[in-house]
Amino acid sequence: MKSFYTAILFCFCLSANAQIITEIMYNPPESGQDSLEYIEIYNNTGEVINLDGYHMVGVDLTFGFTPMFADQYIVLVGNETAFQTIDFSIPIEWTGGALSNGGEEIALLDPDSMVVHSVTYGSSGDWPSQANGNGYSLEVCDITGDFNDPTNWGFSQNQMSVAQVNGITIFGTPADPNDPDCTPTMNTTVTVGEITETDGDGVLTRLGETVTTEAVVYGINYRPGGLQFTLIDSNNDGIGVFVAADDLGYTVVESDEIRITGTVSQFNGFAQISATEIEVISNFNILFPATAVTELSEDTESQLVRFENATLVDPTQWTNDGSGFNVDVTNGTETITMRIDADTDIFGMGYPQGTFSVTGLGGQFDSDAPFFDGYQFLPRYVADISPYDPFDGGGGGGGDDFPNRTIAEVTTVDVNGVADSLGVDCTLTGVVHGINFSTNDLIMTVIDADNNGIGVFNSGNAVGYEVQEGDMISMTGTIGQFNGLTQMNPETVEVLSSGNDLVTPREVSELGEDTESSLVTLSDVVIIDPTQWVGDGSSFNIEATDGAISYTIRIDNDTELANMPAPGEFLLVTGLGGQFDNSDPFTDGYQIIPRYAADIEMVIVDDVIDLDFDSSISIYPNPVNQELFIQSDAEIERLRVVNMAGQLMMNVRYTNSYLNVSDFPQGSYFIQFISGDKLSTKKFMKF
Q1: What is the pLDDT of residues 432-444, one digit of tens each?
Q2: Are 2-181 and 611-686 in the same CATH fold?
Q3: Rounded distance, CA 444 to CA 522, Å?
Q4: Is the pLDDT confidence value at 605 over 70?
């Protein structure tokens, strides 16, 4: 059948006075999918043509009633829904089949199965390599030329509406006139530095060009079954190499010098060559020593770099899951991202303890232009971490008996507030927040980087840990619960590092299960009954309110606050979320526990009325029965209402231009408006 098409093709290619195939997206940059493939057909007859009964070869499609006007383009797609995520034109979806990534014949036939137009495209030789998985469509250069001549096809220069798919920019003009780059494909031998030049947005200036370069292999193959490795040339300039599912007959060996030909491409900002040919020039070449760095940038991409005096920011990031994982490392001042790929011999090992130096190849994973973010580096093998003292579960946990878990994983509860992980043995890592709330035992709180916390209790402090706020520790033990508070009963405690930053307190308007063992702040509250603050060195609870909700503040006798006098009226209270509920369901008894005196701050407002601020605010009606309206030309941050006995009736952030006072008892009240250190006080009567 195809020989018949080819035999009669010649006349159509010369005249091109028909419905012609002008654009083909045969290998879009998708992972094992064909959903973005498309074919563009152009009506070059100068007349209206009804395609009813016309059909395709190469994909399965028979047209219904389809008028095609002179100079109109139509687009045929494999998946209409997917296609419209990258282009807003309205396509026609074929009913079956897909375009071959290696090239094939596609044809439009009339109702009598006579060939109207046919193209046999290819993916190698003189066919533009940019269209083979690199994000570009094929576009015909001259509609009067030979459609089977690869030099009559270029690659689109027009970026489509959605910038990227799988990190690769998409170019095409479906349903619009073509704008191809028809420059003949040339294999130009260039240096790696020339290949990796970028514009002001971090986009490669040679993107889509076919090039040849010579350089030395660094590291391992990160893509078994295909190729993914790093090349660095004699100028110490580096670039990635990528082939999805073909090793081109080459086995990656570090220190090989190779000659490589391929298309310049970019994946999530990372410069690479999509290789088509590899030739080994020599073996056992000397590698450049790693460059010491304290930050990652465009300059470290595909470079061998070293980060010294490193510690893990959060060992729970060391998951040994998936195709690899990211962990943050810090030298105490700067923090950078390290990528552990599943194809390295590091994957599956315990996290490195203590301080170490780490060497790796610079990478990037930035999904949006401009590409100036997402920098990381990838150790090649175990020897790149020195010294490597892996955390293996002995003495500090992490083994089979005490598997690593995150604090968030073990602190979930059921509908009755009972810990889901009761009795679970595990290893937890986090930073100590606060003091030891016991003289003889170990009672403290450990919080991770996301402000997920857990209580810690060890009778008699048998583990011998001296509590120091800011210590990052690893604990092995069993999950328990005391009066509703989820906690770990540790068997071992190991200090990983000291002086770590604490989390930023989370401002909350109520206490509950989600505040338990987290660092939280209550803003602008007052003590309801100051006599509850005994200040005699014992532990005591006080009730406070923001005018709408009451809160329990727990003053522990191990804090300096237990011996201090009651603070002033309006307070900003920071502390650790707690719970003391001695009966199931454990859904009550939530508290906030300040750690030290600095956790309670007086909210000071100048008691002198600001005349300009005061004159800009008015209230009405006065007297009022239900709604008191507020009119102001100034910004108001919050307001509070106090009765004539000095009791706080309301204390809220200012969000509405009126207050509902219908539930207030009859009488006179003061309403105070506050903005920074400005104060305005008005008096109103409720009837």
Answers
A1: 999 999 998 999 9
A2: yes
A3: 21
A4: no
